[in-house]
């Protein structure tokens, strides 16, 4: 299964990793990984979400410590037990969440990262150095610009400069292109080539096939924490082979036997031309047209950050649209949660602790929030009704949620999720929007949750499920909408597609970047 | 070959709710604090043990005990004025000013009507005036918070000083009692309009009944009504409240209005129960000590009663300090602060 | 009369300026200290007491700074070490300061000291208008002229300033590069208290030449508010501090001329002006807040 294209011996590699293993409790994030980086090369690490790419890089950068295996720099075993040690060994990393202070200028940010002497920080001298390095590597930045005013692409350049000026010989870029526009990607790659020409090595973690082809000298593919394809020459493999390495080929789950409602049925949720701005001001969704009908379950697939979160929020009224319209039935939802709730929509939030858990409140009190209006009796709240309702929901849901008087904030992550799922799915709703509902749950609870979603659908609800697990989506969805970079890449039906085809859509296969010479997206509706 | 999509478990921030562990901590505080205060007293050449003995003895005196209850009544109201907005997540430090405005409004209404209308009517009018005045004063800060995002802790704090100046402005000129021997104060309230005493000749007035009613009412409001529940949701997680469809802005404003009304009521009880006239320094830090009492009680209405009693007793004992140990009465603020520091420092809540 | 008011403004505003400069450092590091008022008060008493005992107001200043810093240390330990609510703790610390100064200050009420004497700067003091306003004051005022730009330099041109501001914006970034944001915050808060103590010292040994309970009368709170609408910028704080000093000086100046403005309306003026400034500049300013501080200003959760 592991195809070694170019044997690399330890002595010439800038970095070499052997048999690296890392566990988090019962989860094995990296399993016996072998990996090399030669001097002066661009090496892409490909894989789906959760394949272990980030973990591997964090092991190399000293954020995590391996449970087994060894790591060598320039052929010499290196004990990298902290980011500072990694930096001292010449390894630098640019994280997806850029470690920048928006209120500082470029120079100030870089000054903070460099060890310095003296009371004064040599602003002008540093600025000049930054400008010079920027010119040299094709990473144009204005040293005195405030980072808050820079675009993500420019901020990324600052991070790269920061890493360079700290003396890195090996740069690790974690999913650098996931937030960039095509032109910015070109500029980034030009800079990467300039770095390579100067003898530096760059490791790029990515899930984007076309870009890996465009820039990488060699490619390593991770899947399920293991290396599946090692040191491969990208030109020697077709897109199909690479995608297969990343997502694998497996028999899809049973397609639903029910006939989903036909296209002639009036949809209950209608999105038209929806543009949504994300938290950082960049567009999160572009021109989305989507219909959800009663009695159907639509899955949403896509790599993290493709706009799934914003899609859920916009339907539930938790976020405003920048353009376009959202309707649930006859109700236009304008960014007020009350409107969506009144129209019968319920949500399972992606981030329960920040968005749904109220510290100090018990399980029963959280259940009351499902429908405060109905629980009202005079000025007060009829807790007996709430408790009875909660019991009914619990029975219907069958998720073994915690006792009513437990304080939710004290529960474990999985138990919190059980409470929220019971609340959302334990009673009939007209629209269900579930974001990553199985996250943190054991297999049995996951199975039960999937059944609940299907039961809601069978009872006539329109259900939207966002998930990273393609198997799950294929098993329960009537249709699967694939988001890529904020746009709807395609809508497929499980009966006529497979993981490989969905993978292509998710990864933007066949789009953007240099030639990939590949067949077009499969499936469609 | 099946795929196992593996992903390291995300880090979960810990929110620890130490409700259950509160009372032992309070006991420790109540013990540790006097030790530290005793040390300070010793530094001033006062024998701590004798000092504490004197303080305790003073409380046993029935007249003093009555004074403690009288003070505690005002403190309970002042503490509730902090507790209600605190449950919604707002910090009301303006109790002092709201009490003053309450007293001023009560005095304004009372001094105009007390010689013309029967006592109970005057009292009722004063109560209403005090609560409306206090609510309005607090409402200004709430409004500023919602519109221009100025933190209410700072605005209410500054407004305390303005309120005191308003009162001084009034009693030095327009409301000045001509027969007051030159001391700036308003004319004393007619006997009929004062809060009736329990025992003629004693000092305990029905203000304690007012405080008790307010205590029960607020307890009921917070734990038995939908409004109180929604307030707690907002105070716990405003984002979750918003997503559940709650009107967060309205809840914040109403909580401040209720708090202001309670502080205004405290001003009335103090004015119509003890002072009977407006004079400089009449509020004697009730607002700030009420703030301390609310934090001591962790903003729970029923615990406010015991917290208020405790601080009122400490304050009372502080008066005896002045006589017996020759320490200024305000020294007792050290003891209060110590108790609060221990409670604040050892009751964790979600990370700020 | 304008000259009088402006001169009074500089003199009266100096104490506020010291406290505001100190609080600027603390808030830049992400900690708000409402106990600044307490630090000023303890500083005032300590300075007065030591001056009375030793006869040297300079020794008094040192003592005042130490006292203010110690009180601020209590705040720092509670807020940084025990994660206590910043705003509530500040007020409790204030109470502590009130009580301590009351306890230990009784002996000094009414006691005379040899205070700071005004020292006219040669040549500069003779400039018409500007001379009396700026150059006929006591040494602490001159010290504040130097302090404000020094703190500006510290925050914006030194490495230490980078860590201070970084701690207030995103402490995690500091940690990623080997600094300790907590240590930086501790030092910032204590420094804030030190400077507030110096401000208090000025109040008792140079401005009022007296000690009495509660003599700071809210100046510490005004300083905290001043920091906010100076957008956490030390040089802007100067203007604000003198503005309040002028508002405070207005009343005696008007009375000296027999102009009958209501004394209490004038007393309330500084607080009104502060609130007005916060309202007018509030929205814009709150966007300029260090990120870490914004989180404190959001709803303070209560249990």
What's the domain count of chain A? 3
Shape descriptor of chain A reads globular
Uncertain segments of chain B are 1-18
Task: Tally the helices of chain B.
Answer: 13
The overall pLDDT of chain A, averaged over residues, is 84
Strand % of chain A is: 15-25%
What are the key terms here?
heterotrimer; A: alpha/beta; six-stranded mixed β-sheet; 24% strand; globular; B: 352 residues; mainly alpha
What's the SSE blueprint?
The complex is a heterotrimer of chains A (525), B (352) and C (303).
Chain A: E1 3-4, E2 15-24, E3 27-37, E4 42-46, H1 53-60, E5 68-73, E6 76-77, H2 83-88, E7 91-94, H3 106-113, H4 123-137, H5 152-165, E8 170-174, H6 182-197, E9 201-206, H7 209-215, E10 218-223, E11 226-232, H8 239-247, E12 269-277, E13 283-292, E14 296-301, H9 308-315, E15 323-328, E16 331-332, H10 337-342, E17 345-348, H11 352-355, H12 363-368, H13 372-375, E18 376-377, E19 380-381, H14 383-397, H15 413-425, E20 431-435, H16 443-458, E21 462-466, H17 470-476, E22 479-484, E23 487-492, H18 499-506
Parallel strand pairs in A: 1-11, 4-9, 4-10, 7-8, 8-9, 14-21, 14-22, 17-20, 20-21
Antiparallel strand pairs in A: 2-3, 2-5, 5-6, 10-11, 12-13, 12-15, 15-16, 18-19, 22-23
Chain B: H1 22-43, H2 48-60, H3 62-87, H4 95-113, H5 119-148, H6 152-172, H7 207-224, H8 226-236, H9 238-243, H10 248-275, H11 286-296, H12 301-325, H13 332-345
Chain C: H1 2-28, H2 36-54, H3 57-81, H4 86-105, H5 130-135, H6 139-157, H7 159-169, H8 171-176, H9 181-207, H10 219-229, H11 234-256, H12 263-287, H13 291-297
Tell me about this structure.
The complex is a heterotrimer of chains A (525), B (352) and C (303). By secondary structure, chain A is α/β, with parallel strands linked by helices. Chain A has 18 helices and 23 strands. The longest helix of chain A is centred in the middle third of the chain and has 16 residues, at 182-197. Chain A starts with a strand and ends in a 19-residue tail after the last helix. Chain B has a domain at 76-286. In chain B, helix 3 crosses helix 12. Chain C has 303 residues and is mainly α. At the B-C interface, helix 6, helix 8, helix 11 and helix 13 of B face helix 3, helix 4, helix 10, helix 12 and helix 13 of C.
